[in-house]
Amino acid sequence: MSIINPLLVSRSISSQIGHSLLQGQSGLGFSLLSVEAVPVIQPARNTMIAERQDEPAPEQGETGAPPTEIVEIDPCSVLSELREPYITYGHVKRCYEHIPYNATEANTVVSTMTSLARDFYIFLDSVMTENLQKPFTSPPVDILAGFDRISRTDYKNDFRFQTDVDLLMNSLNDAHANYLAHCYRHYLFVQPFDLYAPVVDKVQTIRILIDGSNNFLEDCQVVTIDGVNALDAIQTWVDTNYGFSKDAGVRLNKALTAQSFDTNAKKWIYNQGQFISRVTLPEQDAITYEISCSVSVLHPEGKNMTLKAPWEIYRLISWNEFDSTQSFLTNNCYRVPKTAPQEELVVVEDDDGDDDDDGDNDGEDGSGLKKRAERLEKVKSRLRRQQHQRRKQERQESLYQAAVETPRHLTKEPRPVIEKRQIQEPAIAHLVSNGSSTSFFQLVKRPSIGVVVIPTHSVSLRTEAHVLEDGFTLLYEAGVRNVILDLTGNGGGYVNFAYDIVDWMFPKENETSVYLSDLRTSMAVKALAQKDLEWEEYNSYFNPASYSDAVTGVEFETNFFLQDKLDRRVNRQLDYTSKVRMNHNLGAFERGMPWQHDPDRIVVMTDGTCGSACGMSLNRMKNRHKVKSYAVGGRYGEDLSLFSFAGASVYSLEEILGDYEILEVDPSMQQLLYKGIYRVPVMEFFDDDDEHGKPIEFRSELYKADFHLGYTPVTARRHEILWEIVANSHWTPEGQTGQDPSIE
Q1: How far apart are CA 710 and CA 642, in angstroms?
Q2: Are 696 and 687 in contact (CB under 8 A)?
Q3: Are 272 and 257 in contact (CB under 8 A)?
Q4: Which strands make up the sheet holding 676-681, listed edge to edge?
Q5: Which residue, 329, 569, 619, 706, is most buried by CB atoms nearer than 10 A?
C-alpha cells in the first residue's frame, strides 16, 4: 500500500488527492482504510475512514523519477472539503494544530483573565482551601499563579495555548468559572457506546447502556478503557476535563449517559455523557475497550473481546464555511466587530440659521466649533439614555440570575435511534399539570404522593408563579398529600425562582429566604459602583441600590462598596463588602396545603447536578427546613452531594465590558479576539448561622445528601421507578417495613 504525507504532496497531484479525500476513495493506487490488529468498530450508518500513517518521502534516485516540487497543503483547506462520514480525527487535529501561536493575543488573554480573576472573582482566596471534607474532592488552586505559568510557557501552536487556559479554569471545579473559546469547539466527537455505572449485587461497574455499533453489546461490562480500569479511566478523564462540581461523584454523573427531563415532550430521554460525546479534541484517535458479556440469550456462551472504536465526527450548528486556515479563523473563531446601530451614526446639522459652517468664520475663539461640540454631546447623551433603557430590561432579570450551567455544545442529535430503544412499560405516574418546564405527576400505585419535576430555574418569572399555583392546587384536589421534588439535571437559573420554590413549601411572612452575600471591592469594582449609583437609569451587579442592609433590611442609598474590609479566607488578604442581601420581593405563598410547613411530607431528589440557583433552593430546604434528601448515581459506597456550586452570581467578560462602556469607566481588561464564554462568579452566599465567614460554596457538610441511591440496569432506563423507590422508602406503604435495599 502506498502511503503519503497529507501535508507534503506534489503540486501535480494535490488537487486529485483533495478530490479523492472528499469522495472517500483514491484512484492513486492507495487506500484510505487501514486494518487494526484488533477489530475496529465502524458506525452502523456509515463507514469511517481510519487515519493514515505518515512515512518519510523517498530519497531522490530511489524510484528513478525526477524530483518534484514539494508544496505544503493547508490542512484546514483539506478539512474544509470534508463532510460526514469522511471527517477523521487526524483531519481535525492537523487543522487545529496548524493555527500558529499568536503571542500578542496570548498576552491579551492572560492579562484579561488575570484581571478578571484578580478584580472580580469572588473565590480567588477560598479556592486555595486545602483538604476539603467529603463529599468534596477538589484540590486547592492558585489561579493567578496558573496564569503566570501559562504566560511563561513556549507554545508551538494556538490550540495548545487555548487548551491550557481552558483546563486551568476547569481545575476550579466551578461551573460558573469558564474559559470557553469557541474556536476549537465546532466539531462533535462521539463514541459508538453510551456508558453508565450501575450497581448490581453491591458491585459497581461500567456497562454499555446503548450500543450504537449494533453488535448487541447492551449491558455488557466494559472492563478496561485503554488498558485502565474503566471506572477509574472515566473518573480520571472527567476530573481533568470537566470542572462542573467539587464532588467527584457528581463529575462522574456528568461523564456518563443518563436520563434528563424533556420539557417539550414531558418525558425522560437519554442525555449523552461528556466522556463519549465531546466538543473538545480527544487525546487520541480512538478508544480501546475490553468488553465482557455475561451468558445471556444474545450470548449463550458469554463473550469477551477487545474493540477499538474511532471517533465519529460531526460538524456542529455553530460551524461555518471556510477554505483555509485564515478563513477558518475569520469565520469560526474571531469575534465579529461591533458596529454602531444606525441611530448612533449621528450627523449634526448646522441649524443656527446663518450661512457659516460654525468653524471657519466665528473668530479665533472657535465659538462655532464649541456650539457644534455641545450639540453633538447632547445627541450622544440622548442616544446613551436610549441604549440604557434598551439594556435595562435585560439587566433587570440577568442581575438576579445565578447562571445556568454553561452549555458545552449545540448539535443535531447524532443518534436518533436512542428514542426507539426506550422500552414501553406500564406508567409509573400520570401527568396532572404542566407549565413551560415545571411538571406535576401523581404516582399510580401511591396516589397520595405527587412528584414535581423542576428541570430548570430558568423560567419566566412572570408566569411560573401561576404554573406553581395551578399545579399544586391540582395535586391537592387529586388527593396528593406528600410531594417529591425532583430536580435532577437542573443546572440553575434565576435567583428569584430559587427563593420562590422555598417560599412555596415553607411560606413564612417574617422569615426571608434571601441569602447573606458579599462581593469583592477591588478598585475596578469601586469605580463601577460609584458611577452606577450616580446613574439612576442603569442597574448592574455593582449598583449599591440593588442591595439592602443585612440587619435593617433598608435599601442602600450610599456606596457601601467604599466601606470595605480586609479579610484573609486562606492565603490572600482581599477587600470584601460587608454582608448584604439582594433586594427581593418575598412571596409568602400560604395556600393551606398539607405539605406546607411540614418537612415530613416533602422529599427532594437529584443526581447532584442541581447547581447554582437550584442549589440555593435545596440548601435552604435541606439545611434550614430539614427536608430529607436523596441523591442518585456517583460512586458506590461514597457520599454524594445533593447539589453543586450553590449561589455565586456569575458575571461575564462581555457584561463587564458593557458596563464599563455604558458607565464611561476606563476598563481594566480588553475584549478577546475569539468569540466565546469567559466568566467568573462575583457574589458569594452565606447561611445565616455561619460563624466563621465561610461561603456556602466551600461548606462541604451542607452538600451531603441524606440518602444515596445507585443506578441499576432498570432505573437507568426508567427514571420514574426512582420515584417509587424514594416514595416507598420515605413513606412506607401499609404492610411493608424497611428501606429499599438499593438505598445506602
Answers
A1: 14
A2: yes
A3: yes
A4: 178-181, 676-681, 650-652
A5: 619
